[in-house]
Amino acid sequence: MPDPLVLHLVVNGEPARALVPPSRTLLELLRDDLALTGTKHGCDVGDCGACTVLVNGRPRLSCITLAADCANEAVQTIEGVAQQGELSVIQAAFDHHVAAQCGYCTPGFVMTLTHLFAADPEADEAELRRALGSNICRCTGYVKILAAARDAQARLRASP
Ligand code: FES
Ligand code: FES
Asked: Which long-range CB contacts under 8 A does 124-131 form with residues at least 24 apart?
């Protein structure tokens, strides 16, 4: 069995360290080693988007990302989105529009939109739909998710 690796990375702005086997996925590292269970374990094969986190600001499917590939990188999870106990604009819009039912997909959607609106605040409807297409929701039918996303984008554009 290969020797475990000592991994150092920054998670939600805080230094983190873990001793992991080389085959450990980023999802396993977050959920099992760092107890950050907001990132969800869905399909495990890169299809559903439930495990989406940001690595250096870009979306990554943590179920198919090796933890070792994130050594010394900055990882943001859903636990790092709210600030000082305040929901982010995107989280608040999901709440306002009741865009979550079981909620299992919600962290992944929030992370996808967090990246999209940071990278392209002027994303048009087609880009919005394309981005959301990387996440699967089996409950809501997407209408409320789209409404929440449009609302959040409008609020972010209007904020100073
Ligand atoms: S759990 Fe990672 S894409 Fe589905
Ligand atoms: S709210 Fe249940 S999967 Fe999306």
From this structure: 128/153
Whether the domain at 5-80 and the domain at 89-158 fall into the same CATH topology: no
- Helix, strand or coil, per DSSP, at residue 80: helix
**Annotation: CATH topology of 89-158:** DNA polymerase; domain 1 (1.10.150)
- Element (H or E) spanning 17, and its range? strand 14-20
Q: Which bound ligand lies closest to the C-alpha atom of 135? A: 1
Residue 19 structure tokens:
């001793």
Taking the model in full, what pTM does it have? 0.96
Taking CB atoms and a 6 Å cutoff, what residues make up the pocket around ligand 1? 41-44, 46-51, 61, 63
Q: What angle do CA 102, 94, 128 make, to 5 degrees?
A: 105
What's the topology of domain 5-80? Ubiquitin-like (UB roll) (3.10.20)
Q: What is the pLDDT of residues 99-126, one digit of tens each?
A: 999 999 999 999 999 999 999 999 999 9
Q: Is the CB of 145 under 6 A from ligand 2?
A: no
Please identify, by atom number, the ligand 2 atom nearest to the C-alpha of residue 99: 1
